Amino acid sequence: PRFTGSLIISSLCVAFLPWLSFRFLLPALLLAAMHARRAWTDENPRRRAAALVVAAVPLAVSCALLLGYQQMAFGTWSFAGGYLHQGFGRTAFWARGGLNGLLGLALDQAVGMLAWSPVYLLAVPSVALLAREQPRRGWGLAALVLSLYLPESLYMHWWGGYAPPPRYIVAPAPLLGAALCYALSRSPGRSFTIPFAFLLSVGILFGALGCAYPLTLYRHVHLLACFGVEISSRALPSFLHPVRSTWPLAFAWLFFIAALTAYYLSVWGGGANRRGCPDGGDGGR
């Protein structure tokens, strides 16, 4: 909508959505900055000024509502009120061992993203491709993903607690899906499409088994282990229960992902978007 009043009303509606919380403060700031930057190019000075107001309204109202809720529910204005009330202390904002959550969200054999949705292994080269061909969009998407991933990896209960895994990966997953769609739109060839189809099928199978046997999702082990299949426990490291092989295996996976990304980037070649997608070639601007 073009009218400032309509924009402010829409922003207020967004601010009152119940899912807004301090975990989404960083992506909210990024989205607000992107909105303000885009609207600032408007030739109308009144709309340029209104863009800053519209970007600030949902953030200010959300923060006020969240602080008020913390005060009413836990007797403190602190964002950490819920965690402190449950006896976790301020360590709720720091993962056990520091890097456990950072790598465990992606690689852990029981609750990691790759263990349950292995197709996202191809998201890393996809984001790299987008960043190379459309830097503004690619780096913007990467910043949004990290703004969700990094804070969530710092929780004491980074694995999600008593909930189906990987709980804290749900928010950034659609952003990674957008990068995968971009890579597929580039006609990447069989070296990408065949692994994509296979890994996607594996993830769908895990999802179907999880729906059929929901209790297996709450045991902090991979679903396959509940059926006596130990593929995940041998192929991926464990950060929930670290052992001697955890870090060597983790670094091996990081090296493999880096090598896979370099391979696909070399296969796809350099230069601008080959398909000439509209709105796609922002180059280095």
Question: Could you walk me through the main structural features you see in this protein, from its secondary elements to its overall organization?
Answer:
With 285 residues, this protein is mainly α. Residues 89-97 and 274-285 have low confidence and may be disordered. It is built from 12 helices and no strands. It has 2 domains: 4-85; 94-268, no CATH class. The protein has helices at residues 4-15, 25-39, 45-74, 81-85, 100-107, 113-116, 123-133, 135-153, 173-185, 190-212, 231-235, 246-268. α1 packs parallel to α3, α7 (123-133) crosses α9 and α8 packs antiparallel against α9.
Structure described in brief:
By secondary structure, the chain is mainly alpha-helical.
Distance between the termini: 27 Å
Counting structural domains, the number is 2
Helix content: 55-70%
Low-confidence parts, pLDDT < 50 over ≥5 residues? 89-97, 274-285
What spatial form do the alpha-carbon principal axes imply? globular
What sequence of helices (H) and strands (E) makes up the elements?
HHHHHHHHHHHH
Task: Give the number of helices.
Answer: 12
Radius of gyration computed on alpha carbons: 21 Å
Instruction: Specify the biggest β-sheet.
Output: none
Question: Quick check: average pLDDT?
Answer: 78
